[in-house]
Write a structure and sequence with these properties.
Chains: A mainly alpha, B alpha+beta, C mainly alpha
Radius of gyration of chain B: 25 Å
Largest sheet of chain B: 11 strands, mixed
Structural class of chain C: mainly alpha
Number of helices of chain C: 14
Oligomer: heterotrimer
Distance between the termini of chain B: 55 Å
Helix content of chain B: 25-40%
Shape of chain C: globular
């Protein structure tokens, strides 16, 4: 006999295994998931997979076109950029920065935001008032200005990019989680649990949180897509990672200047950025679809 | 409520649509009487003597259209009369005299007088007035006027004082008008004595000028000049390519090469008084002369100019460009990576055990600045120097430089429109200047006496000797002199200005 | 009551703005680089630097500087811009209308486009059409505004030179305007040729801003609409014999629009604060362009004024959205 708990009575089938099964049957999600996995492998194995050193310059072989076009050089599949560096290798290494930013920045924003949101939604009163006030003040800042100022303060670098994304986007998670939590806190099963005598933290983490998790995960995957784009924007403005490390945003900014002479320098990282964000969005969409009982019809 | 009939609504939307879709003809510039310039920097303020915009070399093109300087400058950097027709020192170099031009009127019709000259200098001399070089102007006082001649006392001899009158913040403003309307009033409706008058101005959008028919130098070629402020380089390229603008500058060299031969367009790209260099800050590993000289010898400046800048640029060995007064072609720093490796080995460094330091650079501020530093870091890596690139923006660079906290190596540029060694080598290398990164007593001892040197030939030779000493010690790494790409419609004639200021009045005309 | 909501929100607004003011003030003085360092030139000695700092009021202790500034703000004096030499309030007042027109136009285009596609998608649900729309939308969601800007410049500069690339209006036509709301004023005064010129200048920046917003609207509205379409009241109307389009527009939309409206409101504030890059690329003279230059030059009074202004706009728009949602949904009026 399964352990009796309020959730097993009232939940509408959000056990993990059936969600995963549902997702596995959705072709778009499978493709997207596969692509992200492929990207992760690429990022981890970049030093072994990339054909050339992404930093190796060759001033005699600048802006060589990709293989298949006239004047191409064998070995430089996607051509070279303005300093003679291999575009393909730089795109592969660029995935490291983008994925790091996606997972770490989105993850941290999610963590901080959800914690505060849970507290605000469940504890109510003074705590809720304080946190909501904080969110209001925070969101009243124009995001682009705030990120520029932040990077000026922290100096350029991966840590600043992550900090900028976390600092700006945690409020998104906070608000959503707060609303969800408040909604869940009023449901019968929670009232029942309180009557029976479960302690507040235990209710929060064992009853409410699992029901908030699905929405959270959907939001998290979307946030990853956003984080990748924000890094590209910051690179475009010149405020991203400062060292030689190739980033997709940086390559886009460089490629834009010479788009008429060497369109591949812009096209390659753009396509990679694009595919990554679309993949994250598809996973997020798939999750939203599979978790929403109404839309499953 | 007004009633709009169906027909009116149709007509209106038709008109809207038609204007929306009317194709932009690639109109030739000389056909009309308006010159459209797609400019790379906006004009923050109309006051040419005060505040941060007053020391920006590129904005001078706009200031020189509206205002006149005490002393003018030709496009080859030679000086010519401006609002002063003649000037000089007395015999024992304690007084200066200036002859003021006659029959000049301000844009509002009031006459220009020597009072305006005196008032302008005194205003710029106030230490709390916001003039960034007030100490230069404060050196002249006790003015006396006799007809068109002004005489004044000089606290100490400054060989460069008259050159400053053709340089940054050396503009004459109207005393009576300015005192009447105040600084904010002046911003809203500025007047000068220059070839153009301000017709309309929208911040960050455009500056429309109309010709001054009473200009003492003759009426300019174009009746109307519009400076369009387009800070994004790719957008400027699009402007000239689509014909929306008649002339533009500072486009990427690749785009310049692509467009200069296009039908209807022409280009000119010649060196200007702006150089790129790597500041070396004393302390740490930089105190080792072998490291510094290795840094200098390992850089292939020719390759950087030819490959990164498409051949547009001139490698330099000192802070003096070929057009400057104290340029000495006999000073050379050879590209010799083998020598660099040897020097490093003498200090115990090698490719396996490189010397490490940080190099700071801007990104996108000057053409290919970041790429240049990346290329240099690559060249250094080959001889045993491992430099870590740190990107900063201009504000941080200035702050660090002012507080002497720059990284061991820092990339930056240096403009010097008057070509005098005091304003390049002097201010960049003298430790008491807030703009120098290398502070050492030996260099100060050599530079110190040159500030007040009365013999001009001796002064110039002294600066050449200082430059040679700096090159031998490796106290700074000069890289190259920039060239300024200008693209324009083929029915225009453009004379490039070595100072980099694209002044429409004197430099652009119909072909 | 609606009034209670407004009063409540305004009170909160003051607290929020106060918080914003403190944060930006402190942040600016902590960030490296100050405006004096940007303007000192060759040969300036420590005395000159000190004099310049005094001239701009940067030498007093932090608390004194803050007090001086706040006293001014409360009386409507935001100080004088260090780079522009004019009152901050004047600069902001002269640039804000341009950005507002751009943001509003982008919002209108996004709502029409997004709303239309969402309705179409709902009508075509569970067909191939919907799958196509979903696919297209997920691609559109991934494209940020500056990429749109880039694509638009390439198309309209090089391929089809039909639209002007930069600026807001042809300088020859910018005469005789009483306000800075050029587009609105020219339409109201029947100067349609001028309005057309302005609209042609705004076409590309508007599109660059509207397309990402439209994608967000499509996704959210379509979801809400589909949820609403399976409710009982829609089933009732269907039995009564109403056509599908009527069902979507009249029944479902009214109830589904709430969350989309709230989100659109939030996105609109991001739009006002987020036009920075698009304004830069198209040289559009709004507050975005102003903000970039202000930050680069560390123009403290101007940055402070800008941040407060953005904060105020954000709060006002939020209040507006809350009011609109409450009006449409009576149940929320007592929240």
């Amino acid at each position: 006999m399964e352990h009796w708990s309020p959730t097993s009575i009232t939940d509408t089938g959000t056990q993990p295994h059936s969600v995963a099964a549902r997702l596995a049957r959705d072709p778009k999600v499978v493709c997207a998931g596969g692509f992200i996995l492929f990207l992760i492998l690429l990022a981890i194995g970049a030093p072994l997979i990339a054909p050339k050193d992404p930093l190796a310059q060759n001033l005699l072989m600048t802006t060589v076109p990709p293989v298949g076009f006239a004047d191409a050089e064998p070995g430089f599949l996607l051509g070279t950029d303005g300093l003679g560096r291999d575009v393909l290798s730089r795109v592969i290494f660029g995935s490291r920065v983008s994925l790091t930013v996606a997972f770490v920045a989105a993850g941290l924003a999610c963590l901080i935001g959800s914690l505060l949101g849970l507290m605000a939604g469940f504890l109510g009163n003074v705590v809720d008032a304080l946190i909501s006030r904080l969110v209001d003040v925070w969101m009243a800042f124009p995001p682009v200005l705030l990120s520029i100022l932040l990077v000026a303060l922290l100096g350029t670098g991966l840590h600043s990019v992550i900090a900028a994304i976390v600092v700006i986007d945690w409020t998104r998670f906070c608000r959503v989680v707060r609303t969800e939590t408040m909604g869940q806190a009023q449901m019968d099963y929670v009232v029942a649990a309180r009557t029976i005598g479960f302690s507040r933290p235990s209710i929060l983490f064992r009853e409410i949180f699992p029901n908030v998790v699905p929405v959270l995960i959907a939001l998290l995957t979307l946030e990853m897509g956003i984080a990748v784009v924000v890094e590209a924007i910051l690179s475009f403005v010149g405020l991203s990672v400062s060292s030689d490390t190739p980033t997709w945003g940086g390559m886009i900014a460089e490629g834009r200047q010479i788009v008429h002479e060497a369109w591949w320098v812009l096209a390659a990282p753009l396509a990679a950025l694009f595919a990554t964000v679309v993949a994250f969005n598809q996973i997020g969409d798939g999750l939203a679809r599979s978790l929403d009982p109404v839309l499953r019809r | 409520m007004f009633n709009v009939t169906r027909r009116q609504a149709f007509a209106a939307s038709g008109g809207l649509l038609a204007t929306l879709l009317a194709p932009q003809r690639f109109a030739l510039a000389a056909a009309g009487n308006t010159l459209n310039i797609a400019y790379n920097l906006p004009l923050p303020s109309f006051d040419p003597d005060v505040g941060p915009s007053s020391v920006n070399p590129t904005i001078q093109a706009m200031y020189r259209s509206i205002f006149d300087q005490y002393i003018g400058q030709k496009p080859n950097l030679a000086f010519e009369p401006g609002l002063l027709t003649a000037w000089g020192w007395n015999d024992d170099k304690t007084k200066v005299w200036m002859d003021v031009r006659e029959n000049v009127v301000w844009h509002d019709g009031t006459p220009f007088t020597p009072e305006d000259v005196i008032w302008s200098i005194q205003r710029e001399a106030k230490p709390d007035g916001g003039n960034p070089v007030s100490f230069i102007w404060a050196g002249i006082d006790s003015f006396k006027v006799d007809g068109k001649r002004i005489t004044a006392d000089v606290k100490q001899y400054d060989p460069v004082i008259f050159k400053w009158m053709a340089f940054l913040t050396g503009y004459v403003l109207p005393k009576a008008y300015f005192e009447k309307v105040g600084p904010q009033g002046f911003e809203k409706a500025p007047i000068g004595t220059g070839p153009y008058m301000v017709d309309a101005y929208e911040g960050n959008a455009y500056l429309r000028l109309k010709a001054n028919p009473k200009y003492w130098g003759g009426k300019p070629a174009f009746e109307t000049v519009v400076f369009k402020f387009v800070p994004d380089a790719t957008s400027r390229v699009a402007e000239i390519e689509s014909g929306s603008s008649d002339i533009t500058l500072e486009v990427p060299y690749e785009e310049y090469d692509r467009l200069k031969g296009k039908a209807g367009l022409q280009g000119v790209c010649t060196p200007i008084s702006d150089i790129a260099q790597i500041f070396i800050t004393n302390g740490g590993v930089m105190d080792d002369k072998n490291v510094r000289l290795a840094m200098c010898h390992a850089v292939d400046k020719e390759a950087i100019v030819k490959r990164l800048l498409r051949g547009y640029g001139v490698p330099i060995a000192t802070l003096e460009a070929p057009e400057y007064a104290a340029f000495d072609p006999s000073i050379k720093v050879a590209y010799d990576p083998a020598l660099a490796a040897k020097l490093l080995a003498a200090s115990g460094y090698s490719k396996e055990k490189p010397v490490k330091f940080t190099i700071q650079t801007t990104r996108g501020f000057k053409p290919k600045d970041y790429e240049t530093v990346q290329a240099i870091v690559g060249m250094w890596r080959n001889v045993g120097i491992e430099a870590n690139i740190e990107i900063y923006e201009i504000a941080k660079h200035f702050e660090l430089r002012m507080t002497h906290k720059l990284a061991p190596a820092a990339f930056y540029n240096w403009g010097n429109a008057i070509g005098d060694p005091t304003t390049s080598t002097g201010f960049a290398m003298f430790s008491k200047s807030p703009h120098s990164a290398w502070h050492s007593d030996d260099l100060d001892a050599k530079i110190g006496p040159l500030w007040g040197e009365k013999d001009e030939a001796k002064r110039i030779q002294g600066w050449k000797d200082v430059d040679r000493y700096i090159a031998e010690q490796g106290y700074i790494l000069p890289l190259l002199q920039y060239a300024q790409p200008i693209l324009y419609k083929s029915d225009l004639k453009v004379i490039p200005n070595i100072s980099g200021a694209l002044q429409p009045a004197s430099l652009v005309s119909k072909a | 009551m609606l009034l209670a909501i407004v009063v409540n929100r305004l009170a909160m607004a003051l607290v929020t703005l106060a918080g914003v003011a403190v944060v930006v003030f402190v942040l600016l003085r902590v960030v490296p680089g100050d405006p004096v360092a940007m303007m000192i030139s060759p040969g300036a000695g420590p005395a000159d630097i000190a004099a310049l700092k005094a001239h701009y009021g940067l030498d007093a202790p932090l608390l004194t500087q803050f007090w001086i500034w706040i006293k001014g703000v409360v009386t409507g004096d935001f100080g004088i811009s260090i780079t522009l030499h004019v009152y901050v309030t004047e600069v902001l007042a002269s640039r804000l209308p341009a950005t507002i027109e751009l943001a509003v136009l982008a919002l209108i285009v996004a709502v029409i486009l997004g709303g239309g596609i969402a309705v179409a998608g709902t009508l075509m649900r569970r067909t191939v059409g919907e799958a196509a729309i979903d696919g297209l939308n997920s691609i559109l969601l991934a494209v940020p505004d500056f990429i749109w800007a880039l694509a638009l410049v390439l198309i309209f500069a090089v391929a089809l030179p039909v639209l002007p690339l930069t600026g807001r209006i042809d300088p020859a036509l910018a005469q005789g305007f009483a306000t800075k709301f050029y587009l609105a004023e020219s339409i109201i005064t029947f100067r349609f040729a001028v309005a057309g010129n302005i609209a042609s200048h705004m076409a590309m920046p508007t599109l660059a801003l509207a397309l990402p917003l439209a994608a967000v609207i499509v996704r959210l509205l379509k979801q809400s609409l589909k949820e609403a379409m399976v409710q009982d009241y829609v089933l009732l109307a269907r039995i009564k014999g109403f056509r599908e389009l009527h069902l979507v527009l009249q029944e479902a939309l009214r109830n589904a629009v709430g969350p989309t409206l709230a989100l659109t409101g939030v996105q609109f504030t991001f739009l006002i604060g987020g036009t920075v890059i698009v304004e830069r690329i198209f040289a559009y003279p709004g507050i975005g362009n102003l903000a970039i230059d202000a930050v680069i030059n560390r123009d403290f009074p101007l940055i402070q004024g800008l941040v407060l202004l953005f904060g105020l706009i954000f709060i006002l728009i939020n209040i507006g959205v809350d009011l609109t949602v409450a009006t449409l949904n009576p149940r929320l009026r007592h929240a």
